[in-house]
Design brief:
Elements (H helix, E strand, L loop, with lengths): L5 E2 L23 H7 L7 H20 L7 E5 L21 E3 L3 E2 L19 E4 L2 H13 L8 E4 L9 H4 L3 H15 L5 E7 L3 H4 L2 E2 L2 E2 H7 L4 E9 L2 H7 L6 H13 L6 E7 L6 H13 L4 E6 L4 H14 L1 H11 L18 H15 L5 E2 L3 H7 L14 E2 L3 E2 L5
Parallel strand pairs: 2-5, 3-6, 6-7, 7-10, 10-11, 11-12, 12-13
Antiparallel strand pairs: 1-2, 4-5, 8-9, 14-15
Length: 409
């Protein structure tokens, strides 16, 4: 393209997206809208103001086609010294030191509930072509000869998808993995470990650049890394709309299987976001049966958290498929006494009593499958678990976000 951006064909896409939903006509969510829907809760004026603003953004985004990212990216180079080192510790109480690896500004998956963007997606992805040089510098500083070498992780990638088209087609992801391979060859006793959380499907991990697939490189990092799939609990048709370029659930679980065939640690999952109105006993069973069948033995549950602007967008999408689920979504989030139930970046979580009950319901079933649960500080606080239990390492060796502590043994 003339301006230097490159268009690509997504590895996974949907025939139906937010722009061609038959009969979808968003409205302004106000008190009258909630009353017509049957919502019994009367929210605070600040909450209503956020829902109104979010409705306006949704209407405008549909008109302007700015709700999901365009499949284009732009390559740039940066001085490794100008890239800021970030530690992944949103709650301030995380027990594991973790450095972030974020080689792309923006994300091509386009999740409408995104923790980073609240569903407001930039239209141009910026991929840092030489990001691997920053990774090389960081590894040498933190784990090289003469440096302090306490056990810690590198998280690839909390603010964008690690294995999206912008990192695969450019070779950025492959080069980053090569840096870890080279690091361990030079420093066999390094206490660095690579933690990957990803919505990647099998096509992503099988992608080859300069003769190596992602899976080939994973195999060379066996024992030094773990791959955590990221999956959500929500209606399938709803997921297709909210994750326009994400791999289908079955493809993500197939990616888990491909990793496990190579001997790669891939038996824990991030289960997020969880939409509480959809969390029935039958849906809990079918979802976790699928994870268990793929070899998952541990999971970290994360409920949907959203600012009110984002909740207006998500609620109306959900209402397109099921108005009763939309009504329940608002009931779960907008109670005045729930206004201070905030998580990262000030986003509202489901009501406390519902959060506790939902975690217990999931655990009651997954315990029958022998699956363990990683629970972060925020959830532990809601459950009333005493702080002297922190850090919690459960029976399968997973901790906090799902880090596998046994990788350091």
């Amino acid at each position: 393209m003339a301006d230097g951006t490159k268009r690509y064909t997504p590895f996974y896409s949907r025939a139906r997206d937010v722009y061609n939903l038959d009969g979808f006509h968003p409205e302004i969510i106000d008190g009258a809208y909630l009353e017509r829907l049957g919502v019994r809760t009367i929210p605070a004026e600040e909450t209503l103001d956020g829902l109104r603003k979010g409705s306006e953004l949704l209407i405008r985004g549909l008109q302007d086609h700015t709700l999901i990212p365009e499949p284009v990216y732009r390559n740039v180079e940066m001085d490794p010294d100008d890239i800021r080192t970030e530690i992944h510790n949103y709650t301030g109480r995380c027990p594991t030191l973790t450095y972030e690896i974020n080689p792309v500004l923006g994300c091509g998956v386009g999740c409408q509930y995104c923790l980073v963007t609240d569903g407001k997606h930039r239209q141009e992805l910026t991929a840092i072509d030489n990001y691997h040089l920053y990774v090389r510098k960081l590894l040498e500083e933190k784990n090289g000869t003469g440096s302090e070498n306490a056990p810690h992780y590198y998280y690839f990638s909390p603010k964008t998808e690690a294995f999206q088209e912008a990192t695969l087609l450019t070779g950025i992801a492959h080069r980053i993995l090569h840096e870890f391979i080279g690091h361990f060859a030079q420093h066999p006793s390094s206490k660095a470990r690579l933690f990957i959380a990803s919505k990647a499907g099998a096509k992503h991990l099988e992608y080859t650049f300069n003769g190596d697939s992602v899976l080939d490189l994973f195999a060379q990092l066996k024992g030094k890394m773990q791959f955590n799939t990221s999956v959500s609990i929500m209606p399938d048709a709803f997921r297709d709309i909210l994750e326009p370029y994400g791999a289908p659930l079955e493809e993500r679980l197939r990616a888990v299987g491909l990793c496990r065939e190579r001997g790669i640690q891939a038996n824990s999952a991030l289960v997020q976001p969880i939409f509480t109105p959809y969390l029935t006993d039958s849906h809990i069973k079918s979802f976790f049966d699928a994870l268990h069948g793929a070899g998952i033995i541990n999971y970290k549950p994360e409920f949907l958290t959203a600012c009110m602007e984002n909740l207006a967008l998500l609620g109306q999408y959900l209402g397109h498929f099921d108005r009763s689920l939309e009504r329940q979504l608002y009931e779960d989030y907008i109670r005045p006494d729930n206004a201070d139930h905030r998580k990262q970046r000030g986003r509202t979580a489901p009501s406390r009593d519902l959060s506790i009950a939902s975690v217990k319901r999931m655990m009651a079933y997954t315990d029958t499958l022998g699956m363990s649960v990683s629970i972060c500080y925020w959830v532990r606080k809601q459950l009333g678990i005493a702080e002297d239990f922190i850090p919690i390492i459960n029976r399968n060796g997973f901790q906090c976000l799902g880090y596998q502590s046994q990788l350091f043994q």
